[in-house]
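Q: Convert this sequence to structure tokens.
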Amino acid sequence: MHARRWWRVSMDELGAMRQQKSAINHKTMSIAKRFISNLFWRFNNENDLSDITWTLCQTSESFKLLFLNFFFPNTIFDKINSFNRELTKDDSRADFVIDNDGAIFVVECKIYDKNHHFEQYINTYKIPHENLGYIVNYNLSKPGFKIKTWEQFYDFISDNFPEGKNDKNIYEGYLEYLKNVCGIIKITTKMELNGIYSLYGFNQVLKSVINRSSAKFKLTYYNTDFKESYYGYKFKVEDKTQNGIKKEDILLSLGLWFNFESPVITLGAWNQKGRSKLFTDKIDNGEKPFKYAKQQFSEDSTYYFEGSEHFYIEFKNAQNPDEQKKVLCNFVDEIIDFHIST
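A:
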């Protein structure tokens, strides 16, 4: 959550996937792996994915051959004259155009775009159907063509890791990047129904946390914010203090990401239509030592905070729902107090 993320895909899913950032253990990841994985936070659209994939093919000969073998398993690529990215010819600009000993191979990469060019590429580049590789992130079939998915490519890479440590680190970083960009989710833990009732309880407590007043502020429900791997609520914050200029109302979102084994609670400052900009600018322009909140990142009009280690310890050690609610309130109030007092 961008706090961990995860995301592109739809804007909602992208938001969710980006929260996975804090789930990455930077102490155990190599610099190469971290670097490639972290590209996701800035380069996560369809062209970015093709650019990163092409760059990795140019960097690692083993990855390039693996990439080509995934699409064209019956061809030996031992005389590659060129491996071009977006080579324009006539009215076409395919993502990858490869010349292997005079034979032309084309690969087109899609995530969610459904504007296809099957016959166009066959005619423009004058290649047989079997020389066109096509990869998408959804179910697609077309007679006469073999269409792959990014999840199949993810599995193919996972099953063909190199022995060398350096290449392995690059592969692992790319897999993390690919998983986040394409929203690939691999469920490896047995599902347990016991304890799911706690989600219902957590939901009820959230409602009370975002609908309350104090001497300094008033919190009011704005709308429900449910996604595939997240649920929470957006709420409005009104300044009630009388010690100067009244601060602008801001919108915050409080919720739980549950698409990993250790769920993450975040508070996001939503900057839709310019709301919350003054608040987020203050965060960006100076450091604030928080006790319950851990400063995170700004993405997709939302500035996210994750609960700190101290927050999770207190929440876990709380003896009952009322005490847990108090911890959640402390988390929220700390951020709001900063907004009002600065």
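The chain has eleven helices and twelve strands.
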